[in-house]
Amino acid sequence: MKIRFIWEFARFYGITALRRATIYSIAIMALPLTLLFVFYIISKGALLPYAIAGGMIAIVAGNALTIASDAAFFRLELRMQDLLVATQIGQTEYMLGMALGDLIFSLPGIAVYLVLGFAFHIFTAYSLALTAVILLFLALSTAALAFTLSSFVAHVRNVWGITTILSIGLTTLPPIFYPYTLLPNYVLWIFAISPATLAAMLAQGAYGLSPVSVNAAIALVAETVLLFAASLKFARWREL
Hints:
By secondary structure, the chain is an all-alpha fold. It has helices spanning 3-20, 22-43, 48-65, 67-76, 80-85, 91-119, 125-150, 156-172, 185-191, 195-206, 214-234. Helices cover 78% and strands 0% of the residues. Helix 1 packs across helix 6 (91-119), helix 3 (48-65) packs antiparallel against helix 6 and helix 4 runs antiparallel to helix 8.
């Protein structure tokens, strides 16, 4: 494992991108904050804690999904992947660097929701510690999924539509901004295909908003391992 490469690539992908494209990090917050406002108005404030809890999850998952477009651009336009294949760097280090960079790029959005959470007395030290673990697993699982999909994209122009559809399906429809208990179990576990659903269930439990789901914790760990293993197995690292 090339730890040095993982950090340097994460710094390039996260910190450098944050400096050069600050406006994009702000744009990423637009949808979660809009949904927060909508749920606040519709529920007259009753769903505000859920929207705040889900905001960080939506930002991290949304950023991780953009890895699909970035990885496709790096591979098809910059030929970066070809360069790495010729070195001792493997796709594991590449994906971990992207996932860590995603978390770094998400920090401004996370900070906004931390301020909101403390302002409305939603967060505790214990819940924040659990949130950090949840977001780590969410970034790894979603990044692995996005990277795998990107490796099958033949043209960069196709990936934008794919990421848009995935963003709606994986971060808007699932119970991220509303209680997961509102959904029947069979619908909930269909949505559990998205790592963001499992992360939201755990976050709601950590903040005392909904019952704690041990099954969601087990499923998130299992899904992260499976998605990462599937990425190593099926993602196209070397050109045929």
